[in-house]
Amino acid sequence: MTFTEMLRDATTQNQSLLCVGLDPEPSRFPQALRGDAHRIYDFCAAIVDATADLANSFKPQIAYFAAHGAEDQLERLMRHMRASAPHVPVILDAKRGDIGSTAEQYAKEAFERYGADAVTLSPFMGFDSVEPYLQYHGKGAFLLCRTSNPGGNDLQAQRLADIDGQPLLYEHVARLAQGPWNTNGQLGLVVGATYPAEIERVRALAPTLPLLIPGVGAQGGDAVATVRAGLTQEGLIAVNSSRAILYASSADDFAQAARTAALATRDTLNAARA
Ligand SMILES: O=C(O)c1cc(=O)[nH]c(=O)n1[C@@H]1O[C@H](COP(=O)(O)O)[C@@H](O)[C@H]1O
């Protein structure tokens, strides 16, 4: 089954547009685990188990594991997600981007070592830096387009004077991803929930691509405006929230509190569907 098919099935089965982000930060763990980087797996597995019927995807952020030398725990977590929530696709958030020969290694890391269903990528080194990921047929690749952070404007909102129609850089990325770069139908785009007008613009340029939309919750993005701008019959969305779910409680009830927060976000997103 391809990533896009998995995302569609999980969206239907769990009645959800929510991507649960796994950004484990030991200093924010509940008291019993606090500060212990050896408990990253335990913390994340508890969140996965508490939200597996509420999410259309999971998104582990690799830096939160690598910073603690906890890649082995990420491998274990990937196996756990595969076994306990096989219907929920996993987007490995690694934001890779490098020359082709190095990208081949990054693609191998994401899809062979970790067994991810999709990955996040920076498109700014060009198509040859994206192509190695497309060799893994059926896997998804989300290109950064209009990111959720304020500084995203610094480059992504600049006009490209030499290109027909003089698009903004993020508009050009959306066009490339919908068109010539999408050789096997594997591409998606990352657009921030903090910029609903840009989500609408991206959706107009890329009507069928899946959109990964981080920025609701801790970053204050507008969940309702996000769904209205991004979701169409053909175009799937995965709206990511990480900290607002992971750290809904700092007590022993953290997994139950994460479930309650995920449920509330899922319901808000669903209520915004046309
Ligand atoms: O690619 C991403 O996932 C991403 C893109 C973007 O534009 N903004 C963004 O916040 N992210 C990621 O989405 C997650 C957001 O986390 P919270 O702000 O805690 O919900 C983090 O893992 C970020 O690295």
How are the secondary structure elements laid out?
Layout (H helix, E strand, L loop, with lengths): L2 H11 L4 E5 L17 H12 L5 E4 L2 H4 L4 H14 L6 E6 L3 H14 L4 E4 L5 H8 L5 E7 L5 H5 L12 H10 L8 E5 L4 H10 L5 E4 L8 H8 L6 E5 L1 H4 L7 H18 L3
Parallel strand pairs: 1-2, 1-8, 3-4, 4-5, 5-6, 6-7, 7-8
The structure holds orotidine-5'-monophosphate.
Assigned CATH superfamily: Aldolase class I
Strand order of the largest sheet: 2-1-8-7-6-5-4-3
Helix content: 40-55%
Mean pLDDT: 98
Helix and strand content put the structural class at alpha/beta
Cα separation of the termini:
28 Å
Which architecture per CATH? Alpha-Beta Barrel
Q: What is the overall number of helices?
A: 12
CATH class: Alpha Beta
**What is the beta-strand fraction?**
5-15%
- How many DSSP E strands? 8
User: pLDDT under 50 segments (min length 5)?
Assistant: none
Q: List all distinct small molecules, including ions and cofactors, that are bound in this structure.
A: orotidine-5'-monophosphate
Largest sheet entry? 8 strands, parallel
Number of domains: 1
Shape: globular
| CATH fold-level name | TIM Barrel
What value does the Rg take, in angstroms? Answer: 18 Å
What's the SSE pattern? HEHEHHEHEHEHHEHEHEHH
